[in-house]
Amino acid sequence: MWPAASTWAAEATAVFVKEWRCELRTRYALSTLALFAFTTLVVVSVSLGPLGVARSQGSAVLPVLLWVILLFSVAAGLPRTFVQEEESQTATALRLSATPSALFCGKLAYGLTVIAALEALITPVYLAMMSLPVRSPGLLAVALAAAGYGLAAGSTLVAAIIAQARSKGTLFAVLAFPVLLPLLLLAVEITRDAVGGDPAGVALTQLILYDACVTTAGLMLFPAVWNP
Amino acid sequence: MESLTKTILPWLLWLWLVGVILGAFLYAPPAVGFRGSSRILFFHVPMAWVSFVAFLAAGVESLRYLYGGRAPRHDRSAAAAVELGLAFGVLATVTGALWAKVMWGAYWNWDPRQTSILVALLFYAAYLALRAALEDRETRARLSAAYAVLGLVVAPFLYFVMPRMAEFTLHPEPVINRTGKVDMDGKMVLVLMSSLAGFTALYFWLHNLQCRIAELAERRASLEGDRP
Amino acid sequence: MIHPGIVPLVPATLRFDQIRRRFGRLAVLEGVSGAVSAGEALLVTGRNGSGKSTLLRCLAGLLVPDAGTIEYQEDGGTPLEIGERRRRVGFVSPDLAFYGELTVAENLAFFARLRRAELTRGLDLLDRVGLPPDRRAGALSSGMRQRLRWAWALLHRPRLLLLDEPFQNLDAAGERVTRELLAEHLAGGLAVIANPSSLEIDRVAGRLDLGR
């Protein structure tokens, strides 16, 4: 009926729409994620505060904490995309119906939008609460986009892996953090450059390369992870 | 004839390693300016080397499992490689920390190589945690193989990113190997190379044993298994 | 895609041979074999825990057997790969669940998009099994859930139906409708039915007793 390419896109879109439709009717993930991120943010800023951290060290330390908050928020909220399917037993119906690559991309797109929303919410609040001026906001936006993508891609694949195991809560963090560590380091480096007004170095190229590698690995490995 | 070599080879290995130990303490001189503590180099470097070889082996065996017919022996081989990688990696980290304490007064310096082995340990531990959380044999093999391949894809980024990260430490340290190699004389090189060969052979021998044990355990489980 | 109304020249067949599957130390299936062709139904019987559901899951491609072969072919061609088989079968099972936050119609529309089936088919099936399209799937009774499972299984006009306790929780009207659907299906398709609640099913090709 339709050519193969457009129906693959239709499948991925259908998954994406389904995720958001279910999410908007329960508001579970968004509210938990946002609340977790905000609470962590408040804890960090209250402990450090604009007065607690010396100005000279602020530009070195604060970017790290921003990414730690984002990383932990993602770990708290994103695995649900796959864990929920297994726990409510809808995974069987999905396994028998969906093309794995379309399913992966649909879930990845959902994760991306969630992370984008999270970053848009948390970053300005963080910068304001920590009184951290950013000299190259454009570079910061690029860092958020590129690293946010990497977070989504890596987390989606690891979520699919742990969803079929026991003790999923702690297992996600244990498996995801080593995988996401290079991403974290690169994101912090670029964010520091953005804060200091330096041009993006080789770190940005490496981050984009990392994103490409994790995406490729995800597309290749997901069918084996998802189906026996 | 084959059983003869099987009995003789472990003894030869044992003799070789005894020779290496004797050579390390009696034959090779201490490195210039390092006193006797440098002898730890003859054991620490091969252990770290073996740990990384194991990482690579686990990744390759996992690929063979996933894309080479899902043969259980590849899964057993990958798991054995990770277990040995963890064991050697822990030893390498501990010996490295002890030497660092003697050399520079601190157990941990965030030297890129120190950090790399630590992250490798995190990957190993995560892999084994995943296996422990999966009961079904087929699922366990498939998902841990996928994680090992993901680790293999991501690990090189740490290799590129880590050395730049060292610039951010407040106390940059000289890298152990570089200083060692510059001052190493012929005897030291000989002992080091012999130790590397011996430890590599030890790894392969232990790996072979581990695979055989795992296979026998599986066969026993299937023979004395319960009936529903 | 098979278009309705076109009768294939070579009937579809399912053949499985010496299927073995264990879970840990528990050997659930130990060398199970059977075959069924278009127009026939294979009944699988046995006590609880004898492996009926496990066998059906293996046939559906949800589990890979430790040993043995499964060959399903449509149109006399080469047997389908497990991924293709997975997408072609119609599967009904007690642990099949749908998205509680979506309505029944939305659930079927979603799966119709995934399966590239006509979107109207979902509504037709809902009408047939007697489910209100705008009811939230999470608010269904167990009998209505079973009707939804049937509707979902038939969405893409499968030629092979794998039914695990297919009439469970259905009232008399529900059982009548689903039996009609099964009879219509068996006109051109094949089915493997596990643990049928009552053993009166037409066109039974054989019985596979897993015993114990």
Description:
The complex is a heterotrimer of chains A (228), B (228) and C (212). Chain A is mostly helical. In chain A, 86% of the residues lie in helices and 0% in strands. In chain A, α8 packs antiparallel against α9. Chain B is an all-alpha fold and 228 residues long. Chain C is α/β, with parallel strands linked by helices. Chain C has a single domain, classed as Rossmann fold (3-Layer(aba) Sandwich). In chain C, the strands form 2 sheets. Chain C has a 5-stranded parallel β-sheet with strand order 5-6-7-3-8. In chain C, strands 2-1-4 form a 3-stranded antiparallel β-sheet, covered by helices on one side. In chain C, α3 packs across α4 and α4 packs across α5. Chain C is globular and about 45 Å long. Chains in contact: A-B, A-C, B-C. Chains A and C meet through α1 and α5 of A and α2 and α3 of C.
List the helices and strands and how they pair.
The complex is a heterotrimer of chains A (228), B (228) and C (212).
Chain A: H1 4-26, H2 28-52, H3 55-77, H4 80-87, H5 91-97, H6 100-129, H7 137-162, H8 168-196, H9 202-226
Chain B: H1 2-27, H2 41-67, H3 72-104, H4 112-132, H5 137-165, H6 176-183, H7 186-223
Helix pairs in contact in B: 1-7, 2-3, 2-5, 2-7, 3-4, 3-5, 3-7, 4-5
Chain C: E1 13-23, E2 26-37, E3 41-45, H1 52-60, E4 67-73, H2 82-88, E5 90-92, H3 104-115, H4 119-129, H5 142-153, E6 160-164, H6 172-186, E7 190-194, E8 204-209
Parallel strand pairs in C: 3-7, 3-8, 5-6, 6-7
Antiparallel strand pairs in C: 1-2, 1-4
